[in-house]
Amino acid sequence: MALRTVSALKRRLGGAGLGLLRSGQISSAAGRSGAGRARAGRGRGVAWTRPRLGEEQLGPTCPVGPTWESVSRPSSTDRKCLGRAGNFLPCAAQHRLEKTPSYIDYPATARRSFSNHRVIVDMDQSLGVATIKIKNPPVNSLSLELLTEFLIGWEKLENDKSCKGVILTSNYPKIFSAGLDILEMCGKNAAHYTEYWKAVQELWLKLYMSNMVVIAAINGSSPAGGCLLALTSDYRVMADNPKYTIGLNETLLGIVAPFWFKDNLVNTIGNRASEQALQLGLLFSPAEALKIGLVDQLVPEDKVQSTALSVMSQWLKIPDHARQLTKTMMRKPTADLLLKQREADIDNFVRFISRDGIQKSLHMYLKALKERKE
Ligand SMILES: CCCCCCC/C=C/C(=O)SCCNC(=O)CCNC(=O)[C@H](O)C(C)(C)COP(=O)(O)OP(=O)(O)OC[C@H]1O[C@@H](n2cnc3c(N)ncnc32)[C@H](O)[C@@H]1OP(=O)(O)O
């Protein structure tokens, strides 16, 4: 089945994925009590899913928190919860901005989480920052299922106007992501390869061109597609552990990094360093990666997440529209190159990966990975 959009990806997941979107599966206390369950706001010019802000973030005692219904015709009280540009700010954050009197009892941090099988999303609404944790054991390989669930979670965040930044990390310290799932590229048919590659393209385009600030908290090894995932971000913080490696090592598998992987790398570390890194399939230690600019900062393992958060708060201080336009100006030419030849890129991938010689190389690589353990 050919997949064109995220909605097609959602359809592919069938009941599970759509069920998740409909119910919101909010795991916060409010969600468990049912008060914060997401509701689809349809028919009022709003096409996305949002919880009842008043209930979920402040609890039923909030004196000014608007309900979903009241937002469509905001009262003067409700307007207190609307941002200056008419954006709907997270209720708790807006209250803080307005220096609400202290007798109003609301939680210091309003959190909302949702998760599916392979992705955990934890949204801190008071900061407007979500953390996405990948959890696809054993090595966070980017399987089709993971990509699909990731894209669904990402779309929810993109549609949530209160979400300004996302931190990407792994649920399993030691491995950020083992990259594309080799099993998705081995022994399958052309239709499967097509579907898989569309999902890989889609994820890269969405992350690379996101208006949100994206920070990678790289808490483990990050080869090939894992490195690409990190490269889509605006800033990369990596755990300073010499056992971890990062890089586009595709040639070691007997395959070639596509031009948009290469472009993303060149934009990050420059042409000469990319030439060597790509031809030799170099996997860099954190110190080497820092030296060539593949990552921006090294910190002790237990500081990766907190550093990512503090970097995020710096980036979020920049006026959003100016930062977004600048990001677009810097990245659009690169993304456009793929957008212009998406179909050709898919055909190329399918033809390449279907070759007997390439299949043999991938099988041998997988075998070598397994034998390494024995
Ligand atoms: C024209 C277009 C051309 C095509 C372009 C395609 C671009 C491709 C991009 C890619 O991302 S290809 C994938 C590249 N990835 C790698 O090279 C990483 C390989 N893995 C590792 O180096 C290590 O596994 C690790 C990530 C460093 C973790 O090491 P650890 O010792 O903790 O675990 P292992 O015992 O090695 O692995 C456990 C288990 O997982 C399997 N596995 C590992 N990586 C992958 C993967 N990418 N895809 C699928 N499966 C993977 C490994 O075989 C083990 O399986 P079992 O033995 O337990 O069955």
From TrEMBL:
Gene3D superfamilies: 2-enoyl-CoA Hydratase, Chain A, domain 1, 6.10.250.170. One of its GO terms (biological process) is fatty acid beta-oxidation. It is an enzyme of class 5 (isomerase). Pfam families: ECH_1 (PF00378). Pathway: Lipid metabolism; fatty acid beta-oxidation. Keywords: Acetylation, Fatty acid metabolism, Isomerase, Lipid metabolism, Mitochondrion, Transit peptide. SUPFAM superfamilies: ClpP/crotonase (SSF52096). It is found in: Mitochondrion matrix. GO terms for cellular component: mitochondrial matrix. It catalyses: (2E)-tetradecenoyl-CoA = (3Z)-tetradecenoyl-CoA; a (3E)-enoyl-CoA = a 4-saturated (2E)-enoyl-CoA; (3Z)-octenoyl-CoA = (2E)-octenoyl-CoA; (3Z)-dodecenoyl-CoA = (2E)-dodecenoyl-CoA. One of its GO terms (molecular function) is delta(3)-delta(2)-enoyl-CoA isomerase activity. Its main location: mitochondrion. Its EC number is 5.3.3.8. Homotrimer. Key enzyme of fatty acid beta-oxidation. Able to isomerize both 3-cis (3Z) and 3-trans (3E) double bonds into the 2-trans (2E) form in a range of enoyl-CoA species, with a preference for (3Z)-enoyl-CoAs over (3E)-enoyl-CoAs. The catalytic efficiency of this enzyme is not affected by the fatty acyl chain length. Belongs to the enoyl-CoA hydratase/isomerase family. This is Enoyl-CoA delta isomerase 1, mitochondrial. The gene is ECI1.
